[in-house]
Amino acid sequence: MKFFINQPIKIISEYREFNANVDIVTSNDFTATVFETGGEAFSQGEMVIIEVANSDAIYVCKTTVIKVFAGRRNCGCMFSMPVSSTRMQRRESVRISIKLPVEYYMEETGNKLCRGKIIDLSGNGMQLSSEIKLKLDPYCI
After folding, report:
1. Mean pLDDT of 123-133
2. Following DSSP, what letter does each residue of 71-82 receive, concatenated?
3. Where are the domains of the chain?
4. What average pLDDT does the segment 95-99 reach?
5. pTM reported for the whole predicted model
6. Distance between CA 1 and CA 90 in Å, rounded?
7. SS3 of 109, please?
């Protein structure tokens, strides 16, 4: 998972959730301002879950609190850089990555046989890589 400065994140501890913004990113750790904690929200060594939301997915990872900088209203925390993360799609129909050859006919080509590859598939459609340029929403058989 990649973090960047001013990135909004959600931090989930065993009992509470907090909104935060990433302040500093290094190769080994990152620091964030955690909002509305009323002081110290976490303990050094505590394991927390970080959620990062994009338009199409939510990324989730576990990390460890390295250091806490307590404040009256907000606090700063340094976290270890997560080793791995899980991506959860935010779609009505989940899109599955798949690589399959496909043959199809199109009215625009005089019903000539065309070839391509299915890149991904969902309940609402598929992404197709084609040897010819396709119009948006063409009718294929």
Report:
1. 81
2. -SS-EEEEEEPP
3. 8-89, 96-130
4. 86
5. 0.66
6. 17
7. helix
Encoded tokens for 104: 């199809």
CA distance 88 to 95: 11
- Return phi, psi of residue 24, to 5°: -135, 140
Question: According to CATH, what is the number of the domain 8-89?
Answer: 2.30.110.10
Exposure pattern of 101-135 as b/e (b: 16+ CB <10 Å)?
eeeeebeeeeeeebebeeeebeeeeeebeeeeeee
Give the span between the Cα atoms of 98 and 69, in whole angstroms. Answer: 46
Per DSSP, 140 falls in state B
3-state secondary structure of 6: coil
Q: Give the side-chain half-sphere CA count within 13 A for 119.
A: 4
